[in-house]
Amino acid sequence: MLDIATAVLNGLDWQDEREPCQLDDDGFGSYLARLRSLCPRPEVGFFGPESVAWQVNREAALYLGGLRALLMQVAHPAVAEGVLQHSRFVRDPFGRAWNTFVAVQTIIFGTADEAIQVAWEVFRRHRRVRGPMPPDCPAELGRSYDAADPELILWVHATLIESAAWTLEHFVAPLDDGFKHRLYVEGQVFALFFGLTPRRQPPDWRSFVAWFRRRLDWPWWFGTEGSRRVAAALLGDIWWARPLKPALRFWAACTLPPQIRDKLGLRTPAGYTHAFHAATRAIRSQLPALPGLLRYTPFYHRARRRLPAAGVAMASAPGATAAAAGAIRRTTAPRSRSMASGPISAEK
């Protein structure tokens, strides 16, 4: 198996005291050129069909955790202030979600050059996102925000990794420890595209989970009016989304960690809990029967069509059976366990 993630992480050896996200344009451009040079199969990309990243991010079911991840991100007042002041977020909150989805999918399923281009565009956009925090900001948070702050990038990245694992376990299948470890290691490669190296992250999955749980107890979630305003937009408090407001609040209440949910004043009465569990069971039972065209994302399907030209053999197109649903492999690699049958594991 071609372990692209390990090759990239071992080859980087970042020595600068700054994180790449803190560099100027020339410095970040040089960093991206170095990152590009570490990819052993540029035509395949930085992950490839044997990766856990492909298995996870091909699942359209990840959409079900999107609201959860977004609300956790903007719970941080500095993140919320950035999107509030430098985007149309309050008028079009789900536009940012779509942009994030496209960026993630391109990095995971695109060629090395496509992934590098996304990283460059995000970096240039983030360079402009900085300014003063509002007057109601707690003094403990500082007086300014900067999208190039490694701590903010770490938090946003962490919500994506944690929510991906949470969503898969709830709606697709249980994940074994080996799969979670590979998800986290490949997530460290993913973070490189946003200028964050592994030295700023917990070293492994177990450490990450412990860190994330401690972080949820932070007292300043939604600590400004701006952050609460952004959350309200996500929960349907804009004119065109008001018909969806009950459903959005229900989904947020049932999926968010209690510490974040409680800050929003959301409650989970028994009826919510029963309805959510019923929805979870229904989705997990029906997902294996979906044809691949519906179950998996368009970016995954595009990558499947592209890679044979790069000399990578793909399994037959995923279909309605459990056996077909998990089969992406190279001709020289052992067959992967189906994602639709039992706990998902990562084969070495």
Which key features would you list for this structure?
348 residues, two-stranded antiparallel ribbon, globular
Briefly, what is this?
This protein is mostly helical. It has 17 helices and two strands. A two-stranded antiparallel ribbon has the order 1-2.
Q: Number of DSSP strands?
A: 2
Shape: globular
Q: In order across it, which strands form the biggest sheet?
A: 1-2
Strand content: under 5%
**Integer-rounded radius of gyration:** 20 Å
Please count the helical segments.
Answer: 17
The largest β sheet comes out as:
2 strands, antiparallel
Structural class: mainly alpha
**Chain-averaged pLDDT:** 88
Give the termini distance in whole angstroms: 8 Å
Q: State the low-pLDDT regions, or none.
A: 316-341
SSE arrangement, N to C: HHHHHHHEEHHHHHHHHHH
Give a verbal description of the structure.
This protein is mainly alpha-helical. The protein has 17 helices and 2 strands. It has a domain at 61-109 and 124-287. The protein has helices at 4-12, 25-37, 52-57, 66-74, 77-86, 93-109, 112-127, 150-171, 177-192, 205-216, 225-234, 245-255, 258-263, 270-286, 292-295, 298-306, 322-325, and strands at residues 130-132, 144-146. The longest helix is centred in the middle third of the chain and has 22 residues, at 150-171. The radius of gyration is 20 Å and the shape is globular. Mean pLDDT is 88; it is low at 316-341.
